[in-house]
Amino acid sequence: MRVLRLRAVFVLVLSSVLVVTGAVLSTRPPAAQAAPRPVPTQDLRVPLRAMSADDLRAATAGAVAPREGARTARVPGTSRSGVQSSAQQTGGGLRVIGVTWPAGELGPDRRVEYRTRDAGAWGAWTTMSTSDDHGPDPGSAEAKDERGGTDPYVVTSDAVQVRVLDASAQAPADVQLDVIDPSSAPADKPTSTAGSASGAGAKPTIYTRAQWGADESLRTGVPEYGTIKAGFVHHTVNANNYTASQVPAIIRGIYTFHTKSRGWSDIGYNFLVDRFGRTWEGRAGGVDQPVIGAHTGGFNSQLFGAAAIGTFNTATPPAAVVNAFSKLFAWKLSLAHVDPTATVTLDGMTRPISTVSGHRDADGAPNDTECPGNALEAKLPTIRADSRALMGAAFFNPRIDVTSWDYGQPVTTTVRANPDRTMNWTLQVRSVCSTAVLTTLRGTATKAAGLVASWNGTFGGALPPPGEYAVSVSASAGSGTANSVPPYTARVQINPPPDGGPPGYCPARIGGADRYDTAVQVARAANPQSQAVVLASGADAAMPDALVSAPLARAKGAAMLLTKPTSLPSVVTADLRARRVTTAYIVGGTGVISSAVEQQLRSLGVTSIDRVAGKNRYDTAAGVAARIGASPDVLVASGDIGSMSDGLVLSGPGSALKRPVLLVQATKVPTETRWALTRVGAKRTVVAGGTGVVSDAVVRALPSPRRVAGADRYATATAIGTWARGVMQAQDVVLSSGEATALVDTLSGGQLGRIMLYARRTVMPSATASWLDQAPGLRSVTVLGGTGAVNELVAGRAQQAVRS
């Protein structure tokens, strides 16, 4: 594979920017009963500077080719310009290095090289892989902010230095060397994770992210899911002589390079296999799920990728590695009902490939690579055959013929598949938002006749309500795991009539591709015709400005949208054009939303721009309150970034009641907030959060205060909901994620003017469930964000309160 190039070298830290991530460092394996803990990593970023004329003259025209691995950029005959790092040293520990640059800025006539120093002597310059074959799918949200880069290399020498040579006279800009210390302390000692016996192709032992010490704060966004049609084998191109105890550090280094250096949302691989035959969880999202990785550019959404840690161009892979791949692929492909000995033509390919392929087998750019190495590629026939043997009973190529019909007009839909033997099948139907089985059918399939399972679209003659349903077919050829076939599940949609029909099992959901798109969709639901907008920053650091913006939008009859600091996202620009916006209120100074955004607004026909800005977030909130106008009742929240969750749920009631939200510090009422309270004529205040967020002294300093708080953010949200139920319409409720990585969806939800509650991605908090179940006259729940923020079962649990 090309992204993880772990070479035996060594490094020295001199100067530059040192970024420390993580917080807990374990210096020895903990006791057996201790839970695994994240291990911090250090990322030293070293800018490359222009090379002197003497250095350029000394640079040889052709570098030593990489010892093994992927194809490289074309070697320039003459280096007319170049940039070079200073020598970076280390005390002898394992380091992961790589070079990055702005995406698309390194052409084929530029060459990236590194050299290492050992025992005081520098080695030869060696070319580093620079192709774009390993990464997110082009055009995906994950690819938007990525930097170009080399593969990561493991270094264990005395020092390392890198340079970029160019045949043109223009030296490359913004190139940096990343030197990552994944910590010399091992992650918690791996403990056996028992495999599953839930179906054919039993789950192998897979060591978790926690067991290699993943610092989950490095991840961004939420996992995305595709459809597995094949599995791809990669190798990381590092030396093969690593020890078992070094493996967690190697994976942490790769993870840090992918997230911090390349700008990806997570480690690229779905799985990694070490030379000892251990399989490690890579990208988060569920080892049994079709998580979209960043390992085979252009095809990630159609396959999973597993990388052997090491270099296997000429070195024969150990039997333990081949066996681990066979077990992993048998399990993963059995879940997807893919025959490991078959072929498939992936979307975007021009020819069929094996369902178990090497990275080099991917058809077309950007996959220009020798990965997974000649020796490992030669083992693929063995992996295919062994995977098929390990699967046991199976049916392949399942498909469903009808996936949509109108409510009140049921049709028969049929699942067909190719069983490898006689087996008994079971078809079950449930809502995608519930675990309750709504109907069950049974039958027998043979290899000759195939599997044919039909559902007539009713529940015993009764019409299902509109919504999305899961049609699942499982099978068994006898007793035992080897004879049990995992279920195939397809989704069908029953379309609602014009009047909406009876309540379904799933609530309404508003979401988009990212926070900016989500804000556009919410704005269209809240105020689709307005030609005025309130524009707040969607950056995490500017969350307080967005928090106070929703009441301003309601007061001005405007839609609320989010923007990037220096430019309008394309989805926002399209919405502004569609609205023919003439008036814009910008919340925040030019350090938050630049003047370039103002220029974009004017070019779109906006004639009136009112910027509400202060010298800090408290001052900006005060300015927003002044724009809203006189208000004897004011809402108060913490202005601390880490405490935004309490304040965000105030924005819905604040919008409905047209009450401003002012910000305070944990132990102090800022002067700007005191001024605003006086200016708007505040006589009563409602304060969100407990004493750990806003102290009693601060509350006492506010006009006629009422603290509304719970044991955690979920209970605080329900407490605010109970208060709001007494002062506003409470039949319609918004549910969003209370987890830090998805709080951004709540930023724009306040403009809906509804009570706002929190859930976890996969769990409905008891406080939220209890509040919904006891809410009088509850008419609707609307979920903000995609299923990666609040999954369907959690959404369905909320909808139970509406249906009851």
UniProtKB/TrEMBL annotation:
Gene Ontology MF: a single term: zinc ion binding
Compositionally biased tracts (Polar residues): 78-89
Segments forming domain Peptidoglycan recognition protein family: 204-351
Biased composition (Low complexity): 189-202
Family named by the database record: Belongs to the N-acetylmuramoyl-L-alanine amidase 2 family.
InterPro entries documented for this protein: Amidase/PGRP_sf, Amidase_domain, Cell_wall-bd_2, PGRP, PGRP_domain_met/bac
Domain of life: Bacteria
Protein name, entry field: Peptidoglycan recognition protein family domain-containing protein
Pfam families, per the entry: Amidase_2, CW_binding_2
Residue ranges with Basic and acidic residues bias: 131-149
GO annotation terms (biological process): peptidoglycan catabolic process
Residue numbers spanned by region Disordered: 60-91, 125-152, 181-202
